[in-house]
Amino acid sequence: DLRTGIMRGMVYAERGVKDFPAVTVVDKPIHLFKMLDSDRIDVVIFSDINGIYIIKEQKLSSIYALKPSLDLIQAYHYVHKRHEELVPKLDAIFQDMRNSGQIERMRYEFWREFME
To answer: Which residue from 24, 23, 67, 28 is spatially nearest to 48, judged by alpha carbons?
Structure first.
């Protein structure tokens, strides 16, 4: 029975709410969070870091991220076809960063600084 808000084009969210009775679809993320802050919707389905960024930037004190997350979505890097030769090099670099824990350390440091 919750009024749910999602971004247009976020396929994972669109699929997840297909049977929900009251869904608002918007084009801009800030609209979702302003609607949530003003009690026009009850729940927003959105990525954690981007949502927290909007909440902090807009000083929206009435909104909280629920834990744990609904799902983990994989992020990928993309390159233009004219840079196709870089793909194996980038893959190797990212794999090394993952294996060494560098990505996790960078993520932790970002969150620590961001949440101050």
So the answer is: 67
Name residue, tokens 């949530």: 36
Q: Is the backbone of residue 52 left (phi > 0), alpha (psi -120 to 50) or beta?
A: alpha
- What single letter denotes the amino acid at residue 59? K
Burial of 33 (0-12, 13-18, 19+ CB in 10 A): buried
**29 preceded by cis ω (within 30°)?**
no
Which two three-digit tokens encode residue 108?
């932790």
- pTM of the full structure: 0.74
6-10, 26-30, 63-67, 97-101: which has the minimum mean pLDDT?
63-67
